[in-house]
Design goal:
The protein has about 625 residues and is mainly beta. It is built from 3 helices and 49 strands. Among the domains are: about 105-185 and about 230-295, no CATH class; about 310-360, no CATH class; about 420-480, no CATH class. The longest helix is centred in the N-terminal third of the chain and has 26 residues, at about 1-25.
Length: about 625
C-alpha cells in the first residue's frame, strides 16, 4: 500500500505539472521549453485517465518520502489523455508583432527612481536624490544601481559610500562587503601592550535582523533577497547572488539574460563578475554587461527588430515610437522590400509619406517610368512634372503642348525649321511639295517676299505673277516693267503731261501734230476728224461740251439759242419749245409775243439764254 500511495502522489504531481505547462503554453504559444528531460521513463503507462480531476489539491506535500519503492507497478491506475489539449504551431512566425509596452510602475526602480525607455526601447531607471541628515547638517545623496537599489545606508549600512556597481568603500573601523564587520581600534600606549576593546554584547534580535547589535537585516544587508547572519553575511534566496544578494537575472540582467555563474569547490553557485549572458530570441536580442543594449543590427522596441527587418538594406531605427527603415536609394517600402525593378528603368526610393517613388532617367516618365519618348512622338525628351505627369521637352520648334506632334505657331516644315522670318516677316510660310512657300502680300514679292516696292522705283506696287516672278502695278501714268517710263502720250517728272500720242512735250506743254489740238496745253486730244472739237475713240467722235454731230460739226447755234446741242447732233430744247431739229417752234398755245399766259415761250427763251450764256 505504501508503494501505491507513493505512485499515486507521483502521478498527481505529473498531472498538475502537465496542467500548468499546458495552461502556460496556451497563453503564450511562442515560448517553447528550452530544456528537454535528459531521460525518458523506460516504461510508459498503458492506460491514461479519460478525464482530469475537476479540483486540484491546494497544497502539495512539504516532504517527499525518504525512501522510494524499489519496484513500480506495471500498470498505471489512471489513464492519461490520448491527445494533448494543445497543438503547437508547426511554423513559428518570422516576426513578432511590434507593440511598445507600457512603462512599468515605479516599484520597478525600487520606488527610488522613475522608469523610462531609452532610445533602444530598454527599461532604465532615473534614480532620485534624497536628503541625509547628520545632526543639524544635511547632505544630498543619490540612489545608485541599474534599479536604484543601492545607497550608502541600505547597501553599506551607513558606514561607507556605495558605487553604481553596489560596491562599498567602508569608513574606518568597518570592513566587509556591506561594511558589516566591526574592526576594533587599538589604543596605542608607549608603556603597555595595546588592548583591543571588546565588541558589544550579543543581544536577542527581532526576526529579520542579526548581529551583536542587530545591525544586520534581511531587508537592508541582504536587500530583501536573503537572510542576514550574525557575522554580516547573507544566505541568498534561490536565484540571487552576491555578498548582499543584490544580483539576479531580473535585478542585474533585467530579465534580458542570465547571470554568469559557476559552482565553487563546495558546489555553491556564485557569480563570475556580475555580468550577464544576454538573450537573443523572439523576446529580443541584447548585449552589454547587464544586457541593457540592443545587439548589433537590432533596435527597439525591446530590441525585437533586427535582421531581416529592412531586408538587410539598412539598420532599422525608432522614430516617435514607430519602427522605421530609412531605405537607401534603390529600395523602398516600409521594410525596404521594393526594389528598382518597380521603376522599370528608374531608381526607387521612399517619398515623405514612405511610399515608393521613382526617379526616372531622361527619356522616361510616369509613376513607374514606363512612358518613353514615343509619348513625345520621338521629337523630344519625356520627363515628369512635379505631379508625376509626363511632359515633353521638344526638339527645335516642335510644340510641347501637342506632345511635339505639331509645330509651334508660326513655324512650318518637316522639322518646323521655317517661320515668318523665312518670308521676311511678311507672312507665315506654307509647305508645298515639302518645300516652304511664301504667299507674299501686295507690296512684296520674290520666293521669300524679299522684294519690296523699291523694285518698282516706288512708283507702283510689286506683286508675284503666276510664275512667282515679281511684277509692278504702276501708279498714275507710269509704265514699264519697273514703272520707270511714262505711259504713251504722257510725260513730265511724274508723267503728269499728256499729249495723247499726238504731239510731244516742249517747254512743259504739248506740241500737237497731224492736225490735233488739245483742250489744254498739256494734251493733244482733239482730233481733226472731229473738227478738233472732239476726241476720236474707236472711230467715233466724243465731242466736247457745246458741240455735237458725227464729227462735232454742230454747235448750240443749230438750236437757235433756245436749246443745247447733243452729242448726236440733235437739240435739247428749252421749256415750252418743241424738240425738233432746231427748237424753232413754240408749243401751242404759247405765243412768244402774245398776251399772258401765251408769252411763256418768250420768257423761257430769255431765261434759258441767261442760264447757259447763249
Amino acid at each position: 500500500m505504501r508503494h501505491i500511495a507513493i505512485f499515486i502522489f507521483i502521478s498527481i504531481f505529473f498531472i498538475i505539472s502537465g496542467y500548468y505547462i499546458s495552461k502556460k503554453m496556451t497563453k503564450n504559444s511562442t515560448q517553447i521549453p528550452t530544456q528537454i528531460p535528459t531521460q525518458i521513463p523506460t516504461q510508459i503507462p498503458t492506460q491514461i485517465p479519460t478525464q482530469l480531476p475537476t479540483q486540484l489539491p491546494t497544497q502539495l506535500p512539504t516532504q517527499l518520502p525518504t525512501q522510494l519503492p524499489t519496484q513500480l507497478p506495471t500498470q498505471m491506475p489512471i489513464q492519461l489523455p490520448t491527445q494533448m489539449p494543445i497543438q503547437l504551431p508547426t511554423q513559428m512566425p518570422t516576426q513578432m508583432p511590434i507593440q511598445l509596452p507600457t512603462i512599468p510602475p515605479k516599484s520597478y526602480c525600487n520606488n527610488n527612481g522613475t522608469p523610462y525607455y531609452d532610445q533602444n526601447g530598454l527599461i532604465k531607471c532615473q534614480c532620485e536624490s534624497y536628503i541625509k541628515k547628520i545632526g543639524n547638517d544635511q547632505t544630498t545623496k543619490i540612489w545608485k544601481g541599474n534599479r536604484c537599489q543601492f545607497s550608502d545606508e541600505t547597501t553599506c549600512n551607513d558606514r561607507g559610500s556605495v558605487s553604481d556597481e553596489g560596491i562599498c568603500r567602508c569608513s574606518s573601523s568597518w570592513t566587509g562587503i556591506s561594511c558589516n564587520i566591526y574592526v576594533p581600534v587599538a589604543t596605542p600606549s608607549p608603556s603597555i601592550v595595546p588592548v583591543v576593546t571588546s565588541p558589544p554584547s550579543i543581544v536577542t534580535c527581532p526576526p529579520g535582523t542579526a548581529g551583536r547589535a542587530c545591525q544586520y537585516s534581511n531587508s537592508i544587508t541582504c536587500k530583501g533577497n536573503g537572510i542576514a547572519t550574525n557575522d554580516g553575511f547573507c544566505v541568498c534566496n534561490d536565484g540571487y547572488y552576491g555578498n548582499d544578494c543584490s544580483y539576479s537575472d531580473v535585478l542585474t540582467c533585467g530579465g534580458r539574460g542570465t547571470l554568469k555563474t559557476y559552482l565553487d569547490e563546495n558546489r555553491v553557485r556564485k557569480i563570475v563578475d556580475g555580468t550577464c549572458n544576454c538573450n537573443c530570441d523572439s523576446n529580443g536580442c541584447f548585449k552589454g554587461s547587464t544586457c541593457d543594449m540592443c545587439a548589433d543590427g537590432y533596435i527597439s522596441p525591446l530590441c525585437r527588430i533586427g535582421p531581416p527587418y529592412c531586408n538587410n538594406k539598412v539598420d532599422p531605427i525608432l522614430e516617435n515610437g514607430n519602427v522605421k527603415c530609412n531605405c537607401p536609394s534603390g529600395s523602398a517600402g516600409s521594410n525596404c522590400e521594393i526594389a528598382n525593378s518597380y521603376c522599370n528603368t528608374g531608381t526607387v526610393s521612399n517619398d515623405i509619406n514612405n511610399q515608393p517613388n521613382c526617379s526616372c532617367p531622361s527619356g522616361s516618365a510616369g509613376r513607374t517610368c514606363t512612358i518613353t519618348n514615343s509619348y513625345c512622338n520621338n521629337k523630344g525628351i519625356v520627363s515628369n512634372d512635379a505631379n508625376k505627369n509626363p511632359i515633353c521637352t521638344c526638339n527645335g520648334n516642335w510644340d510641347p503642348n501637342n506632345n511635339c506632334a505639331l509645330c509651334k505657331y508660326g513655324y512650318v516644315g518637316s522639322n518646323c525649321e521655317y517661320d515668318i522670318s523665312y518670308c521676311n516677316g511678311k507672312v507665315i510660310p506654307t509647305i508645298v511639295n515639302d518645300q516652304p512657300n511664301c504667299s507674299c502680300p501686295s507690296g512684296s514679292a520674290g520666293r521669300t517676299c524679299e522684294i519690296t516696292n523699291s523694285y518698282c522705283n516706288n512708283r507702283g506696287t510689286v506683286i508675284n505673277d503666276v510664275t512667282g516672278n515679281p511684277t509692278c502695278l504702276c501708279n498714275g501714268n507710269w509704265s514699264g516693267d519697273k514703272c520707270n517710263v511714262c505711259k504713251p502720250g504722257f510725260s513730265g517728272s511724274n508723267c503728269e503731261i499728256e499729249c495723247d500720242g499726238n504731239g510731244s512735250v516742249a517747254a512743259g506743254s504739248c506740241a500737237c501734230v497731224n492736225g490735233f489740238t488739245g483742250t489744254t496745253s498739256l494734251n493733244c486730244n482733239l482730233s481733226p476728224d472731229c473738227n478738233n472739237k472732239g476726241i476720236l475713240e474707236n472711230g467715233l467722235c466724243k465731242c466736247i461740251s457745246g458741240y455735237g454731230g458725227n464729227s462735232c460739226q454742230f454747235t448750240n447755234e443749230k438750236c437757235n439759242r433756245k436749246g443745247l446741242i447733243k452729242p448726236d447732233g440733235t437739240c435739247e430744247c428749252a421749256q415750252y419749245w418743241t424738240s425738233d431739229s432746231n427748237c424753232s417752234v413754240c408749243k401751242a398755245p404759247y405765243n412768244p409775243n402774245g398776251p399772258p399766259p401765251n408769252y411763256l415761250c418768250g420768257m423761257s427763251e430769255k431765261s434759258f439764254q441767261t442760264k447757259y450764256g447763249l
